[in-house]
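Let's do one together. I've listed all components of the complex below, 602 residues spread over two lines.
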Amino acid sequence: MSPIVRLIVQRIALGVLLLFLVSILIFAGTQILPGDVAQAILGQQATPEALANLRAELGLNDPAYFRYFRWLGGVLTGDLGTSLTTGQEVTATLLPRLWNTLFLSFWAAIVAVPLAIVLGLISARYRNGWVDKLISGLALTSTSLPEFFVGYLLIYLCAVKLQWFSSISTVYDGMPFLDRMKAIALPATVLTLVVLAHMMRMTRAAILNVMQSAYIETAELKGLRPIEIIRRHAFPNAIAPVINVVMLNLAYLIVGVVVIEVIFVYPGMGQYLVDHVSKRDVPVVQAVGLIFAAVYIGLNIVADIAAIVANPRLRHPK
Amino acid sequence: MSVSAAPLVKARRRIPIGAAIGLFFTGLFLSTAIFAPLIAPHPLGEIVGDVWMPMSAKFPLGTDNLGRDLLSRMIYGTRTTIFIAAVATALSFTLGSILGFTAAVVGGWFDMTMSRCVDLLMSIPTLIFALVVLSVLPSNLVTLILLMGTLDSTRVYRLSRAVAADINAMDFVEAAKLRGEGRAWIIFREILPNALSPLVSELGLRFIFAVLFLSALSFLGLGVQPPQADWGGMVKDNKDGIVFGISAALMPAAVIGALAISVNLVADWILNRTTDLKGGRGNG
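Okay, and this is what the predicted structure of the assembly comes out as:
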């Protein structure tokens, strides 16, 4: 087996192991309550009989490891359990919401990634010039601002004052594509702004790192124009770190989406999670938490594999 | 006269304009937090006017969704937000740096176990894990601080372990070990003083993260609970006014950003200053 394939297989196996451990952690995270789930649902005034009935119904009398494996078995066969508050199947409720979240994140990523790379290249080209300073200043500002400030500011300006968009991003099944795009325009913009700054700064750092190599100096001495140096020499070598940066930020986007869905009342996974955390609906929280963690770990694996594949030293072993 | 003025001019030249602005506003926020009850024109929960009154001489920032003075609530909110974020940061630093230094000095199975546990905790997005845990734990100050401090200590652990591993390989640490000093001496007297500058700059960044994280949790309704008020919670209280063109929710949100930017400017300056001291890089 070539070393590159072996590395990739290793990385995926490690990811699967990690996901398994994470599922234990998420399950354990909901077991650290001094009481139990039944107590949390029924409250302090519950009668002992009601508690005992609910415990039996939820299978809480079984030992924790037993319940964990039952839950894990369900997850592996696509059954994420039943919501405690609505009594509905979690899987059925969750799938359309997962799709909505992925739709929103996808369009945010489509805009954010090329924009961040171009801005990163520009600020690396004009390093320490006013363009670079301006871009870094804006980046510092946007990483410091909470998502809800940017979100409500956009709603205030674009939806309330200018009336261009609706302040609530409603989407439904069978919605025409253009209407759907218009509905997600504001939340996608906020998501883009949230990840843009970080991604751009890291792209700039990756390029500048490559720019210190000896072959870049050779290119300079050869008399190439700075933008040509970046295009022909620096960028191809910076691709691996840049892909890594992009993937890590997409993983970050998955988290940013939670707050943004709540701001725009968008029917996605984040909104679903937050609603059920306050209702103490443990099966839903476990399921959504696990899916978020899986997407996050998945993107991290893709980042590592991309870095392996893009590394010329690994692609052409001696 | 000229003799005493010279060091002053020199000292002033060392503080760049950005850092000076950052220091000024950070100081302003801190004193607002400390003297909140003295500055606030109205008590925290008192209803003083109609719902969402516009800005006026009596209510400089208008009133909130229940007719309470927004400015007074934001002043009290400064106290709650900064207090929780500061205690959580202190906890994450104590926990993270002690464990990180110990892992670097002791090495072996302790280092291995700790580092793998930290890897595991960091493989779940912080906000998601916090939400999972908050779905069963009661939302009170102690839970919030412990949760934020523990989750954030993973990042401090990684940094302090890396820094300490570098210092641990240096001659003076070797000398101390040969002298027969114990591990506590090595950690607190040899490593800690030398690891301080990168950690102080990180402290600023972790504090900002704690402020933003707490605000996000409160905004989602899972952080600070009423009648206590913090900035994120105020955004949540007033967010329904936005569609009627009432900007009350934007004020506390903007203040969170202002605090984060000020602390960022100070942390940036400290980081640049310490790299100047160490490598002499960029001494323009």
